[in-house]
Amino acid sequence: MSGEALRRELIGRARQASRDTDSALAALLRAGELEAALEDDEHGEATQARRLTDGLAGIWLATEANRDLRPHLAWLEQARLPSSLSLRRPEGYAYYALDLRAYARGAGQPGIAEKGLTAVGVRSIGTSLSAVVLAAAKARGARAQRFTVRPSGHPWQRRLAFTADQRALVEANRQGAFMVVDEGPGLSGSTFLAVGEALLALGIAAEQITFLCSHPADPGRLLASDAVSRWPRFRTWWPHGQAPARDMSAGRWRRVAFAGESQWPACWAQRERRKHLSPDGKQLMKFIGLPPYGESPLHRAEQLADAGYSPSVSSYASGYLAQPWQRGRPATRQDARFALSRMADYLAFRARACRSEPDGSDDLEAMMRTNVAEFLGQDLARGLQLRCEQPVHADARMAPHEWVIDEQGGLLKTDAVEHGDDHLFPGFCDIAWDIAGAIVEWDLSPGHARALLALYQQRTHDAVQARLRPYLVAYASLQLGCMKLALSTCEQSEQRRITEAAFFYRAALCRSVGIEARGWPLP
Q1: What confidence score (pLDDT) does residue 244 get?
Q2: Average of pLDDT values for 352-362?
Q3: What are phi and psi of 481, to 5 degrees?
Q4: Which of 32, 180, 358, 365 could form a disulfide with 391 if both were Cys (CB 3.0 to 4.6 A apart)?
Q5: What is the mean pLDDT of the chain?
Q6: Which helix (H) or strand (E) segment is 129 a member of?
Q7: Are residues 325 and 473 part of one domain?
Q8: CA 166 to each of CA 36, 107, 119: distance values in angstroms, whole numbers, following the listed order
Q9: Does 353 reside within a domain?
Q10: pLDDT above 90 for 360
């Protein structure tokens, strides 16, 4: 992103920050992105960017409601920002419903007001997270300071060396409390451990150090070397709130959507967004991203609702999109003939209304070739390429159960707004991805597939069939890869469904490359 574009956006958001909570939150999170980028580049404006993040954190937490942002706005207007900034979208804010206010509560642990606090944020997300911790600690009367770090090295063996300025900050609060602030831990826990052990090396006692995490960790499962003995040395804190009474995450929605468990589709629970049903069962709240990251999915949800393809939008708050729980029944593959015209209309609408800029990435094609080599033991011809002529924010959820036949006999699309621009495949790609998804997921016969393509072309004049085959290969190979990963992490009760899905996708992959499907689907 250009420095000038981010400057203009931040000025606009900062001016709105004192007027409503969502504007303040969006400004805070974007300021954190700017701070992280400047810190990573060791840019001379990084200190001022940190002060901006701190000011916005105070306003968002309402600890400094009358904070004068004019000095920060004056700095933004004249700051010498780089012409190009490498920004990292914080995954916890955009995809995983990370609760900032929980981190603020973490700053209220006993003794901090008396001892003083040093918050060490792990970039990128640790900029705004540590700013919130700092603001919350100061609001409780604590003497507090913060800085951010970026450990480096192999993901399972991160290492950290503090700068001279950071060592001085640690020394200034040697007897105080230290909080390492990050989302996670991830698979290894090595990022938290790298920061904690760097503090130990400066003479800080382990009992002074707390890891502020987004969830608890089992040291026996962490992949960092000797994690089982290293992790328990440190205190840990994570949000201890209870899940909503009608939690619909991790496949639980199937209990409400289907008449019986025998009808349930396979579910990779760890890949699902957080969602819950209102106490009266009338509203589904689904996490689509905190502001500003949820703004684009919200816009698509409103577009699809206005066009009559998806349920209406009731509200958007704290990152959650609320829509009416759609009564009716999930569609099945037996409904394919009935659904073809509606699907063609929907795909044509997305091709027009959900356009994006191609990202120029070859990752999707690389995934396709790697997965075909692994699952089928053969290399694809170099001429088989994923041409991108109609780039869109893909739906990426075209399975029959994602469509609901409502009580009036209409067909509505659910779960349609956020998967095409998240951090997982497919990313921004051609509308052919969703057309391939419809053909594979509905297991369309050759005749029905030709009918869908003809209906779509009538509505768009896009001869998608000429570039479709590689997308059929890519789609089936990705889903097969997902089933392999899901099988390695799922509960025993889910294994049969995931195994059946793996056989289904392998058969589709074999058809798309023109070979016979034989044997166990996964290597």
Answers
A1: 75
A2: 83
A3: -60, -40
A4: 358
A5: 95
A6: helix 126-139
A7: yes
A8: 16, 20, 11
A9: yes
A10: no
Asked if residues 162 and 201 have their Cβ atoms less than 8 Å apart, the reply is: no
Look at the pTM and tell me if it is higher than 0.85: yes
Its sign, for the CA torsion 174, 176, 181, 186, is positive
- Whether residue 172 is contained in a domain is answered as yes
d(CA 21, CA 353): 29
Q: Which two tokens stand for residue 99?
A: 């609760």
Residue owning tokens 């085959």: 469
Confidence category of residue 499, pLDDT binned at 50, 70, 90: very high
How far apart CA 37 and CA 52 sit, in angstroms, is 14
Q: Which of 153, 169, 151, 141 is nearest to 47 (CA)?
A: 169
* Mean pLDDT across 103-110: 91
CB atoms within 10 A of CB 232: 11
**CATH number of the domain where residue 413 is located:** 3.90.1200
Q: Which residues contact 366 (CB under 8 A, 6 or more apart)?
A: none
pLDDT digits (tens, 9 = 90+) for 204-250: 999 999 999 999 999 999 999 999 999 999 999 998 766 677 999 99
CA distance 312 to 324: 7
Whichever domain contains 151, its CATH number is: 3.40.50.2300
pLDDT > 90? residue 47: yes
Number of domains in the chain: 3
Task: Assess contact for 184 and 191: CB atoms under 8 A.
Answer: yes
Assess whether pLDDT exceeds 70 at residue 66. Answer: no
pLDDT recorded at residue 65: 52
Q: 519 lies in a domain? A: no
Question: What is the structure's pLDDT at 472?
Answer: 98
Q: Summarize pLDDT for 80-99 with one digit per residue, the tens.
A: 999 999 999 999 999 999 99
Residues forming a β-bridge with 177 = 117
Query: What is the pairing mode between strands 117-122 and 403-406?
Result: unpaired
Q: Determine the Cα angle at 58 with ends 55 and 60, to 5°.
A: 110
Are 197 and 209 in contact, with CB atoms under 8 Å apart?
no
Q: H-helix or E-strand containing 172? A: helix 164-172
Spatial distance between the Cα atoms of 126 and 130, rounded to a whole number of angstroms? 6
Q: Is 249 a domain residue? A: no
Give the residues across from 209 on adjacent strands.
Answer: 178
Which residues constitute the domain of residue 315? 254-513
Could you tell me if 269 and 390 lie in one domain? yes
Residue 523 confidence (pLDDT) above 90: no
